[in-house]
Every structure is written in C-alpha cells, then in structure tokens.
Write a structure and sequence with these properties.
The structure is a single chain. The protein is of the alpha+beta class. Helix content is 37%, strand content 19%. The chain is built from five helices and seven strands; from the N terminus they run H-H-E-E-H-H-E-E-E-H-E-E. A hairpin with a 5-residue loop joins strand 1 (40-41) and strand 2 (47-48). Its EC number is 4.6.1.16.
C-alpha cells in the first residue's frame, strides 16, 4: 500500500503542471517536416532539421517509428485528426474534426505482413470497438527493400494498404 502512494506521488511530480502541450513523436515529426510550424532544438540550442529529427526518432524506435509515422501522415493528409489509440488497444484513433468536437470514428491498428495474427484477438477487438461505435481500420505498411530508411525522403517510396473491418449484427436484421 505504501509503495502505491510513493508511485502516485512520483507520477504527480512528473506530470506537467504548466498545462503545456505534449506531442507524440509522429505529431512532432509531422509538424516539423510536413507543415514546418514546429521547431525542435537540441540541448545545445541548435535547431534540428527534419532529417536529423527523423534519424533521432528512427535511431531510438526503429522500424516501428517509420510504420507509425507513415500511417499517421497518411491519415493526416486525408484530413483526419489522428490521436493515440492506446486506451483502446490500437495504434491510433481517427477523429473527423478533433476530440473536442466529435467522438472518434475509427481505430487504426498497424499490422505486419506475413505476421501471425490471432483470430480470437481480432474478433474480440473488433467486437469491443463495434460496441463503442468505432470502425476498425487495419493498416499494412509496405516498405520496399531498396528504401533508405535512415533518411526522411524514404517516406515517398513507402506505401500503405488499409482495410476496414465491419461487423454484421444479426439483431439489427430482425
């Protein structure tokens, strides 16, 4: 019990008290590289160019960052507001105009090509999302073998395929 109180106090100390905005790495990369409205600086007060920022994120998070960023960018370019989907067990949630105006419309899960997927977990996730009136969108990120991933210019040769999972409810058909 005492341990839980200590952990809670630690989290409270770490939580921002200045109401500052916290961005995900995908949001930061997008605002820096695509829109050019975010400037990121190193500890030496030197500005990080998009390619340097890309290398830092890729160096730290690997191919997972690349897949997440390409997916994030794809949906942002289509006009969606993209937020974390951690609370629903997916990579991202898609909003029409933003979380302050509407509930999310869809949940995005990034899948691996040729990877084993559990049918039971897919059905459970799809059913849970359907009960919350969300559509499950599965995204497969296709990275060519000759793609130079350590450079941000690689995003132009990466493509994605997305499929939407729909559930037919027999109770609605009666």
């Amino acid at each position: 019990m005492v341990r839980h109180f200590r952990e809670a106090r630690t989290w409270k100390r770490l939580w921002p008290t200045d109401n500052s905005l916290r961005l995900s790495m995908e949001e930061a990369m997008y605002l820096n590289a695509e829109i050019g409205i975010l400037h990121v600086y190193t500890g030496n007060c030197q500005e990080c160019e998009p390619n340097i920022l890309w290398k830092k994120f890729y160096g730290r998070y690997g191919i997972r960052f690349v897949k997440r960023y390409v997916t994030y960018r794809h949906f942002r370019l289509q006009g969606w507001v993209v937020r974390s989907g951690l609370h629903c067990g997916v990579d991202f949630m898609l909003y029409r105009d933003g979380p302050e105006y509407y509930h999310s419309s869809a949940a995005v899960r990034i899948i691996s090509a040729g990877g084993e997927r559990s049918v039971a977990s897919f059905i459970a996730l799809n059913r849970e999302l359907n009960s919350m009136k969300k559509t499950l969108v599965e995204v497969l990120v296709l990275i060519p073998e000759d793609c130079e991933i350590p450079s941000i210019s690689c995003i132009h040769s990466i493509s994605i395929i997305h499929t939407t999972a729909l559930t037919w409810k027999t109770s609605d058909d009666r």
